[in-house]
Amino acid sequence: MKRHELDAALKKGNPPNAMMLYGESHFLIERYAKRLCDVEDANLLGLYHDEYDKELAKSHLSQGSLFGGRNVLLIKSEKKIPKADLDLLIALCQKNTDVIFVYAYYGDDHKTSNKAFDKRSGGDSIRLFNPYLNEAISVIIEEATTHRMRIDASAAKHLLESQHADLALACNELEKLSILGRPITSKEIETHVYGLAEVKLEHFIKNLIEKRDFRSDLTHLLESGEDEVRIVTAISAFLTQLYLFHIYIKLHGAPDSLVILGYKLPSDVEKMRADLSIKLKPKSYQDGLSLLLHAELSLKSGGDFDKTSLLLSTLLRLQAIL
What we know:
Strand content: 5-15%
CATH topology of the largest domain: Rossmann fold
Oligomer: single chain
Number of domains: 3
Helix content: 55-70%
CATH architecture of the largest domain: 3-Layer(aba) Sandwich
């Protein structure tokens, strides 16, 4: 299935009741999982990461809702669910079209899993790639409408650039801007958006990479209203950009932010990122981003634990890796 097909099915209210979401854009996986599960009188069972239990999942799809609504099963995992289990869960959805099964897969090996979700079985799947610039701008405009806001394409592009093309961060900023109660232009973004991925974050990351104490900066970020998930995703986005600089410099000998990012950075900022990028080895990028991804998934799991302690532990481990 293609994105425009899923969008059309959601608009008509008739998406497949057994759906697998996978691919490179975790933001879009989250977004579509939420939309697919957003049905009237939903009795939602969420099984996240290591919580997956075959019998519990089977039972939820087999029985009727105690409250007269629709039973919805949402599985989020970076580990593959056995194909035999998926076949069984999809078959239960075909026996009872009132139930819904959404499998949000965050891993890389999706070749086996998505074979279960074909049209012969009654299910379907979609690979969600990182959106191009125009697609990302469209997503921001769509998200703005959910907050009853008006934002034009130019302002949406400016918002995206202020967060260094991190779509999740840009959409999070819309919630802050919604309290203004007026159409959003570039002026509002310049005035009100706290650019987590701007100078403060660059200083924070620089301290991490250079093995300096970052804890006072972290405390300041948290006290300023930033949450743990946003900090982790912002660091991931920043490290990803550094890796792009690293590759480009290895190939061409000098950085060019216009080519690397699609927009030109100030010369001093471009030099700082280039200098940071070449200090790290490819394996450090790989291990660091993997660690941050695991932390992000844990923070989003909704478990009862101290998120700040998990964040601090993750950043100390990240510093050791880098």
